[in-house]
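Review session, final week

We close the course with one last complete record, chosen because it touches almost every idea we covered. It is Eukaryotic translation initiation factor 5, a protein from Cyprinus carpio with 424 residues. Go through it on your own first, then we will talk.
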Amino acid sequence: MSVNVNRSVSDQFYRYKMPRLIAKVEGKGNGIKTVIVNMVDVAKALNRPPKYPTKFFGCELGAQTQFDTKNDRYIVNGSHEANKLQDMLDGFIRKFVLCPECDNPETDLHINPKKQTIGNSCKACGYQGMLDTRHKLCTFILKNPPENDSGSVKKEKEKKNRKKDKENGSSGGEAGNHNDIDAPDAVDGDDDDWAEETTEEAQRRRMEEISEHAKGLTLTDDLEKSLEERVNIFYNFVKEKKDSGAIVSADKEILAEAERLDVKAMGPLILSELLFDENIREQIKKYKRHFLRFCHNNKKAQKYLLGGFECLVKLYQTQLLPRVPIILKDLYDADLLEEDVILAWAEKVSKKYVSKELAKEIHAKAEPFVKWLKEAEEESEGSEEEEDDNVEVVYSSSARELKMETTKPAKSDHEEEDIDIDAI
């Protein structure tokens, strides 16, 4: 079934039609994705490459996109309904297809790589203007210009060739008098020296020659990506360090990468997934420095660490669920979790990371440790009050100043025993 390209036009005899978007959800869990089955046909009706509307969906939804041009598969990560994507497609059409003057979808896009601008011309009314390049999709379009805009690139090359010809004198008077075209010289084997080396060493040298400005542009480009994309980049970075055996000494590099991608608070969530398993108690000691770089004086990062801990309990439920209070104390003793963060977490059961039922079980198992924390806090407050009560003010008539004297409290016969958290 076809629909009007401009769906604000209700005329059933409207000239510009496109097929209704068909979406198919595949996979389960973290691997779930939505395949847009007829994206090629939809894009053809809009006179745009199929990558553009697919990438637009990714920008709007904050999801990763995949393009398999050989098999005509265009994918948006996550589960999305066809109607929702169809409504979102209207936004793409309004911004990147319809003419601002006549509202007809007969426009072409023209890329100016030097000025980093996107021109828009209408074949119906003759309108010519510029697109607003603030949308994230514009960055993608500038890097992947439409094929029908290759003429502008050719014109640039022709201009350069003409300039070179003038410099070499090929457009001089004598050159115009020759009717015969000289045959090209025989190709020497030495011309291979002009070819670009493709060895690993040559590639490494070229990478080192990249200017700091170009590196800065790459960093900025990563920041323009969605949060999910940046988290995935950070995940792959840490995983690569772990797989290569360089993870132990890479704590500073990992922190720098998280700060570069602006995902520092979420760092402990990714680290706990990659560095912890059922042997978490030993691993807390091993990777304490890594987690401290994220969690020290950062309560948001500590909350993400608790979320990562819940996910870990879900994976190794049999081994870790009975040991929840002991592991929490290990994290507390390692200064990775602060007291108020743990107490705030204990107040509310959340299903953000695990099911409601499992979250309740985890909180129930953590109750002895939470109770111990609360009692320790009350004891510390009580001891502070006692210290204040033990201070007496002594007035001496022979002195001009007040003197403070501390009296020792009488020892009670039955002092409270310390709570052994390991016995919980």
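Two points worth writing down before the exam:
Confidence is low (pLDDT under 50) at residues 170-195, 211-217, 393-404, 411-419.
The two ends are 66 Å apart (CA to CA).
Good luck, everyone.
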